Amino acid sequence: MAIKNVHGSTLEKLGQAVISGRYPPGATIPPEPVLCEELGVSRTVVREAVKSLVAKGLVSTGPKVGTRVLAAEQWNWFDPEVVVWQSQVGLTREFLRDLQELRRVVEPAAVRMAAERATPEDIADIEAAFAGMRKAVEEGGDYVTFDLAFHQGLLRAAHNRMVAQMSKALAALLRTSFEISTSRKDGPRSSLPMHRAVLDAVIARNPAKAEKAILVLIDGAREDIEEVLASRRRLPKLDLPAPRLRAMV
C-alpha cells in the first residue's frame, strides 16, 4: 500500500473515531504507541494523521496534556473530509438542521447578486447544468452532480470572491442535501420547475424574484429531508459515487 493511502486510511479511522464520539470532546486520544499497535502503522503515519486532525479543528495538542478532542463547534465543517466522515458515521438531525440554515443564509443573498451580475458565460454554465439535471430525470443518470454544478454556478455568478471560495467549501455540504432529496421518490422530477424558476429569474435580472425562488427550492429540500428522516431510509455516505436515477418509463 502506498504511503499516501496508509496516511489517508489512518486519518479516516481517527477522524471517524472522533466524530462518532468514540473519543468524545474533552477526552484524550490514546498515545502514539497505542495507536500504532491498534492501527498497524508507524509513529510517523500516526503523527501526520494527528497533525491533519489538528488542522481540521478536531483535536488540539500540547505538552503534558496529550491530544485532546475539541468540541464539535470548533471542527471545520467546511472541510470536505469532515463532512464525509460525518456521513460515514451517520448524519444527525442537528447536522442537517445546521446545513439547511446555512443554505438559507448564503444562497438567497448570492442568488440576488447573481441576478444582478451574471455574465452570458455564467448563464450558459447554469443552463448546461440544468439540462444535465433534466436529462438525468428523463433518461436516467447522475442527477446529483449536475444539481451541484447548478448551485455552484449560481454562487460563482455572484462575482464575489468570498462567495466563490465558499462555493468550493460548500460542495460536500450541498451534496449531502441533494443526495437526500434525490432519494425521495419523484424528488428530482418535482424539483426541476423550482430550479427553472431560479434560473429564469436570474436571466430576467430580477433579484427579488430570484431570491424568492431559491427560498422555495431550499424549503422544498428541507421538506424532502424531513420526509426521508421520518421514513428511516438509509442516508447517503459521501465517500461513495452519487446514485444514478433510473430512466422515466
TrEMBL record:
Keywords: DNA-binding, Transcription, Transcription regulation. It holds the Pfam family GntR. The keyword Cell cycle does not apply. The keyword RNA-binding does not apply. Residues 4-72 form the HTH gntR-type domain. Gene3D superfamilies: GntR ligand-binding domain-like (1.20.120.530), Winged helix-like DNA-binding domain superfamily/Winged helix DNA-binding domain (1.10.10.10). GO terms for molecular function: DNA binding; DNA-binding transcription factor activity. This is FadR family transcriptional regulator.
